[in-house]
Amino acid sequence: MASLAGMLRTQGHRVTGSDTAAYPPMSDQLRAMGITIMEPYSEHNLDERPDLVVVGNAISRGNPELERVLDERIPMTSMAALIHEEFLTGRERLVVCGTHGKTTTTSMLAWIYETAAKRDAKWKPSFLIGGVAENFGTSFHVEPGTRPFILEGDEYDTAFFDKGPKFLHYFPDAAILTHVEFDHADIYVDLNAVKTAFKRMVNLIPRRGRLVAFDGSENVTECCAKAFCAVERYGFAVSSMWRVVDLQHGATMRWTLLREGREFARFALPMAGEHNALNATAAAALAAGQGIPVEAIVEALASFRSVKRRLEVRAEVAGITVIDDFAHHPTAIRETLRALRGAYPGRRLWAVLEPRSNTLRRSIFEHELVESLALADEVALAAVFKSEAIPPAERLDPEHVVDGLQARGVPAVLCADADAIIANAAPRMRSGDVVAILSNGGFGDIYTKLPKALAGS
Question: Is the pLDDT of residue 457 over 70?
Answer without folding.
Answer: no
